[in-house]
Amino acid sequence: MRFFQVFALITALFTLQPAQADVLPTDGTPVHFGKAYAYPTVPARPNGAVFVKVKNLTDHDVKIVSASSPIAKRVELHTHAMVDGRMSMYPVDYVTVPAHETHELKPTGDHVMLMLLDAPLKVGDLFPVTFMLDDGSSYTIDASVISLVQ
User: Fold this and answer.
1) Helix%, strand%, coil% for the chain, nearest 5
2) What is the mean pLDDT of residues 102-111?
């Protein structure tokens, strides 16, 4: 029975995606981050993830080279890929946002992995995440913890 509960939760994490507002840059910055979100976690699993749309308004590709947050001891950029018929998640050195395009960090794709969380993420929590780009600039945004079912 427990296997099916875990399977259902994993399936929900990878298939449910909340309706997020389109990225609408209005502040004059060359790279814009939309509404960031995370899902709740449980104490037995001290890891979480952050998802967000990133809009590149420049004429050149931009790389997100790292991320940080005060709520986790370790933060990494990750992606998913199908390896030998199984979905695998692994860290990457950067995430590229092509010129004049929007790239979505989302479940089953590129995302920010929060590892060794200081406390479980609960629906309604709000926390900062800082993204560092390859040009040395950084952007700090708030991520909200939302329910898996909406």
Assistant:
1) 10, 45, 45
2) 95
